[in-house]
User: Fold this.
Amino acid sequence: MRTSLGSLVLSSPVLVAAGCAGTGRELAQLIPLAHLGGLVTPSAVLHADAGSVSPQLAETPSGLLTARVPGPTLAGLLGDDLPWLARQRATVIVSLGGQSVDEFELLAQQLRGVAGVSGLELNLAGPDLDAQGTPFEESPLRASAVTARVRRVTPSHVPVLARLSAHIADLVEVARACMTAGADALSLSGSIPGMLLDAQTLRPVPVHSGWLSGPAIRPVGLRAVYRVRAALPALPILAAGGVMTGPDALQYLAAGANAVCVGTGALRDPLAPITVHNALAASLAERRLPSARDIMGCAHAPIPAR
Amino acid sequence: MIRESAQVAATRRVGEYTVLTMTAPGIAPLARPGQAVTFAVGGAQSSLLARRGCAIFRAQERGVYGGTLEIVVDAGEPGTRWLAERRRNDLLDVIGPVGRGFALPRDPVSCLLIGAGWRSAGLFGLAEALHARGCRVDIILGAATAERLFGVLEARRESATLTVLTEDGSMGARGQATDALDEVMARGDTSVVYASGPAGLLRTVAERARERGAVSQLIVDVSLACGSGGCLGCAVWVTGQDGNPRWVRACVEGPTFRGDVLRWDRPHPAAVLTSLSRDGSAAP
Ligand SMILES: Cc1cc2nc3c(=O)[nH]c(=O)nc-3n(C[C@H](O)[C@H](O)[C@H](O)COP(=O)(O)O)c2cc1C
Ligand code: FES
Assistant:
């Protein structure tokens, strides 16, 4: 079930989402990382900032609400994790979490020529410190500036994926701007903002500005993929949002994704990426379709007459 | 660490808790005292996505059915209630052993084990291992009520002295487990204290042990929402080897920590999972 994201050919259309398996060391005890379509790393940062945010997690109906904490430093990834991942023969997409356009460029520069980096994912949901902390993805201008600068310093055989969240107002416009700026593919979408109140105190629980993931957001993610695919037919899409089972992945492919990420699903069941892959293969076989490509985007065409 | 489908072999009630015995021939022989396991709860279609972590009460390498694991469930929220409702022959998605077990003393020193409520369960495998090394073992068990104590019978068998305290005085002395710390440590000339309980108890144990020149080893009270290093929900604020504070994952570098490594200037974040679910905000 090969698929591709721009120039990157993947052995499976099922990957592990950014931040949902760390850098893979624990997951590797349970499944061979080489069997995954790929692993997206947690969003790497330029400077360590240990104490700024407390990691937090709360369970909500069919979802998880997590506080987004600063990821590993790129230096740490370069020193330990990427060489180790390369030895596991894992396909690795490094997620970058810059806090300014310049930081994104610096991060990308440091990854030039590093062995075992198959792609870069730009986490554009983070705050842009040069724009009063407005997330990059909320401005077509800022999102495309990051994309263009990273694309310029990244070797052409390494695809650059712009990650956008499903809830942003101008999703299609921002996606178009990133494509024009040189994005080879989109990563759609990350988690979406949510909150919880403590049932007793009726005040925000510690995870008061959390990010919601899991099946609770699947319909939101599916619509985002469908809209962007309709508007930008040529742009490859790596989808994410609530994929737990084979049928979930099939729906994302049908809506127009070229590959899917399993995030929360892999937290509940670390074997889920493999199970989803196998179930997907089985349902393609059942439909007598030779490759995943034959199902991609089919939701946009009328059901063929028999 | 492996994942297996464990079959429930037996269930029994102990006070307010449920003890589940399951066959887990892969995990049981690997388990060390202090390590945990995690379960997916609610079945395949469940809306409960966080796994539930549980200390290993007993791990037996071989039995009639191969290796078995025993865990103690406090059915305080929908996920653990689902676990407690499992019946013989039901299958459980279990991952383990999770994290690192307790460090055991090289010499036959005097040890104190102190546990509160169902969390005491994580200390019993340790008691056996300490005996095997010729250590003296004193035990303190505490809980709100007699029904919420766990392991009094086992503790009596495994200890030189056993001290029981309940907050309502329904069994043993009235008070909290830590009330007996000074007296028992003085009497046993304790060198190492092992503790499992809520954050308040752990902090008191760590401080008291330091004052008395003893080493403390604690099982932190955080939820293990994935148990495989991905979610960061189990993060614990510690002093790193370089002396700087940092977050580490209890499911990787814990759940056992030396008391002098844990820092108390930030709340233990992962308690959020349990405090929320207790209000019934999520149903299976
Ligand atoms: C614990 C956790 C950590 C995450 N860390 C990152 C991250 O570092 N960078 C990022 O771009 N997305 C991160 N995400 C978002 C996921 O990559 C994914 O896009 C999102 O959770 C939706 O997919 P899911 O519903 O399958 O989880 C994280 C999500 C979770 C639950
Ligand atoms: S329990 Fe998820 S990272 Fe530790």
